Amino acid sequence: MVTMRAAVLYAPGDLRIEQIPVPRISRNQVLVNVKAVGICGSDLHLYNNGRIADSIMNEPLILGHEAAGEIVAIGEDVTALQCGDRVVMEPGISCGECEFCQRGEYNLCRFQAFKGIPSTQGCMTEFVAIPWRYAHKLPPQIDHEEGTVIEPLAVALQGLAEGQVRAGQSVAILGGGTIGLMALQAALALGAGPVIVVDLYTKRLDLAKNLGAAHVVNACIEDPVHRILELTNQLGTDVVLETSGTAAAAAQTVRIVRRGGTVVLVGVGAGEVSFNVDLITRSRLKLTGTFRYANQFPVALSLAKSGKVDLCSIITHRFPLERTQEALEISKSQRDSTIKTLVTL
Known about the structure:
Layout lengths: L2 E9 L2 E8 L7 E10 L2 H9 L1 E2 L2 E2 L4 E2 L3 E9 L11 E4 L2 E2 L5 H4 L10 E2 L12 E5 L3 E3 L6 H4 L2 H13 L8 E4 L3 H12 L5 E5 L2 H9 L4 E4 L5 H8 L5 E6 L4 H10 E9 L11 H6 L3 E4 L7 H10 L8 E6 L3 H10 L6 E5 L1
Parallel strand pairs: 13-14, 13-16, 14-15, 16-17, 17-18, 19-20
Antiparallel strand pairs: 1-2, 1-6, 3-7, 3-11, 3-20, 4-5, 7-8, 8-12, 9-10
Helix pairs in contact: 4-5, 4-10, 7-8
């Protein structure tokens, strides 16, 4: 086992399947034979534009960070895991020493190396080396494909935690993609409700309804602000999660949330957005961002193990590694019919 296959992005739209060396592991690492990788919105940003936010490609990059697989080798210092363990990989490797890491906020570590984000190589390859602490065992009832959805579930859980969502609260989720649908299920598991989901695509809204959304709003047909205020007796919802990463949705959040409520900006890509500061101050709104996750993988795995979240519900397409470019193109062009596309190995 000297070389392995990998999906390598050279430039926007230029993805090649190549043979590259199998990584060597250090004393505290494990080598994971990747079985499935989810395509995320960040992968599409990189595939389309060669960048996401301020992370810019300057060299060929292996995409992918939502990955699960089986351990095939362990370093000398690894005792908690063994070969044959099925794991999901937490992709953000933090320094462990900075002030943020020391406070437990390792998602804010300025030195974090996040797989599949420049310039850290990702998981769309046969083998990945990772520190053992970032390899989380999968429960027997969760397969590798479902394991890829643990990462976006962790993102959703972090957003709900930032919004301090609790039982009995009303929640509006702007964006019915992977993160939005995971946030819907997690919010319901926490006892929140009613939950309203807004999106542009009928398939996503139908799934949201099937997963327990009290109301769905098609933003192509209805004004989300008007409709949500109508549904809440002109009060708005206690919490608004913006998961689509669009400027239009981000701008709507402060007009959807109730007085004294909380807005959580989860989606990436909206750039600069104008807000009415007087509306925020005079309504005592709490406006916060959330970035990735910290200590949410164990929570996500526990929630999935309980059966309160249907991980498989959002998986719509599967492609072998050799067809990764096709998988990306379909995820890019057929948003009305795709939610979560997997690359399988």
